[in-house]
Specification:
By secondary structure, the protein is mainly beta. It has a domain of about 200 residues: Ribonuclease Inhibitor (Leucine-rich repeat, LRR (right-handed beta-alpha superhelix)), CATH 3.80.10. It has 2 helices and 41 strands. A hairpin with a 2-residue loop joins strand 4 and strand 5. The N terminus is likely disordered.
């Protein structure tokens, strides 16, 4: 009978190796993954259920569900008195336990399995053995342990990882909302995504170890986090949403090897006033610093080749920005709503200003656009209410819809000779604009393009306008007695369709030829 039992135990050990995740209730180990199978552990010692894997014991559960404090022994002893070192807490071993408050780990333990204590709402303290051998904390190991405050040696406060820990799994401490401080260890080599996501109580986080990436969503939603330190000098990537919504974080110092800051990495860090962008950074992703309303200074490195859409959107305190020479396109809303932005330096090879790129930057009084520019997208400079003048570079062919709409202080526009198209509402609401000259190659003007209440002089150099390519109401809202200057050969034609074909020019206007 004993031989049969031993054989069955060996088979179970093999199943353990090839099965992903499972959980234990009072009588059995229950798999919680999609491919789950029901297993009876068949081995028990002092109410601890275990299986043997490679000659060592893996604890897979505890039969007495009433205990609030557990000390996991260093050995499991079978019915023949043979000892097995406890080296692993199995996947889901103590998951969803509604009694556990304190757990003490044995010395030989090396691995805490996936979801081992996930959902233990009353668990407050995890105590590691002195000189603990633990190297791996599995994914979701302490997920939703909302009462957890201390994890480390017996008198540790906060999370203080033992020296030998090398791996922290994905979501390992996610939603551990009672943790206040975290100290990693120098042996860390791998950090899991979302490992501390939603830890709203963390105020201080001390990085340590060597790894190349701060993972995606690593500290996302840690709204009480005020300071981080010790980020590895080997870090090259700041992951997507790594620090998203860390709304109390004031300062971050990135190390010199960082080359990429992924999308939304610091989005919603509303207290962030200072962050350095290292000299090797080539890419800043979409929304990377969106809504960092306290950020007042940033210097972009010459190595930067990509600046994502909305990267600095709603950075309301940002006063100055430089666009490096390797940036060829300003993406959608990249500086939208930066209402304190006054000084913009654009160098090099920029060819296009994207949709809403500088929209609602209400402190920009002037901006010099580079000679390489060929297009200005819709809303690019809309509601820049301090902008007084703009020179459209010589290669620009199109001005998008509402590109300068609502620029109420704009008094002077120097158009590009290459311009062919002026979009709908392009200068709508530019009520300080008194004169405008439409260049000779323009063949399309959109609706309400020049709805400017003080535009008293309009000069049209192009001979390519027709009733079809000038939209209805293109000049709606201009003064009744506007003076319109047109080429001599087009005087009658333009006067006829601009006044009588619903283009917005009043019949009380004055047409002159040149």
């Amino acid at each position: 009978m004993k031989k049969v039992t031993k054989l069955f135990g060996a088979l179970l050990a093999l199943v353990m190796v090839f099965t992903s995740v499972f959980a234990l209730n009072a009588n059995s180990v229950v798999a919680k993954a999609e491919d789950a199978v029901l297993y009876d552990s068949r081995e028990e010692y002092k109410d601890f259920k275990y299986i043997i894997v490679n000659g060592d014991a893996t604890v897979v559960g505890y039969a007495d569900g009433t205990k609030t404090s557990l000390v996991i022994p260093a050995f499991m002893i079978d019915e023949e008195g043979k000892k097995y070192k406890v080296t692993k807490i199995g996947d889901f071993a103590f998951a969803d336990n509604d009694r556990l408050v304190t757990v003490t780990f044995p010395y030989y333990l090396t691995t805490i399995g996936a979801s081992a204590f996930a959902g233990d709402k009353k668990l407050e303290t995890i105590i590691f053995a002195p000189n603990s051998l633990v190297t791996t904390i599995g994914e979701k190991a302490f997920l939703d342990c909302t009462a957890l405050t201390n994890l480390g040696l017996e008198k540790s406060k906060g999370i203080v990882l033992p020296y030998n820990v090398k791996t922290i799994g994905e979501s390992a401490f996610e939603n551990c909302v009672s943790v206040k401080t975290v100290e990693l260890t120098k042996s860390i080599r791998k950090l899991g995504a979302a490992a501390f996501r939603g830890c709203i109580g963390i105020t201080s986080f001390e990085f340590a170890g060597s790894y190349s990436k701060i993972p995606n969503e690593f500290l996302s939603g840690a709204i009480s986090l005020k300071e981080v330190s010790g980020i590895s000098s080997n870090v090259q990537i700041i992951g997507t949403k790594a620090f998203k919504s860390c709304s109390s974080l004031k300062k971050v110092t990135l190390k010199s090897k960082v080359t990429k800051i992924y999308s939304r990495a610091f989005e919603g860090c509303t207290s962030l006033t200072s962050i350095n962008i290292p000299s090797k950074v080539t890419s800043i992703g979409k929304y990377a610093f969106n809504n960092c309303v306290a950020l007042d200074n940033i210097k972009l490195p010459a190595t930067l080749t990509y600046l994502g859409a909305s990267a600095f959107q709603a950075c309301e305190s940002l006063k100055a920005i430089n666009v490096p020479s390797k940036i060829t396109k300003l993406e959608t809303h990249v500086f939208f709503g930066c209402k304190s932005l006054k000084n913009v330096t654009i160098s090099g090879k920029l060819t296009s200003v994207g949709n809403g790129a500088f929209s609602s930057c209400s402190s920009i009084a002037s901006i010099k656009l580079p000679s390489t520019l060929t297009s200005i997208a819709k809303n690019a400079f809309s509601n820049c209410t301090a902008l007084t003048s703009i020179t459209i570079p010589s290669k620009v062919k199109t001005i998008g819809d509402s590109a300068f709409a609502g620029d109420t202080a704009l008094t002077k526009v120097a158009f590009s000779a290459a311009l062919t198209s002026i979009g709908a509402s392009a200068f709508s609401g530019c009520n300080a604009l008194k004169a405008a000259t439409i260049p000779s190659k323009v063949s399309k003007i959109g609706a309400n393009a020049f709805t400017c209440s003080n535009l008293t002089t309009l000069t049209i150099k192009t001979t390519k306008l027709t009733t079809d390519n000038v939209a209805n109401d293109a000049f709606e809202g201009t003064p009744v007695e506007i003076t319109v200057r047109v080429p001599k050969a087009k005087l009658k034609t333009y006067q006829q369709f601009l006044i009588y074909n619903n283009k917005g020019i009043s019949k009380h206007s004055t047409f002159k030829s040149f």
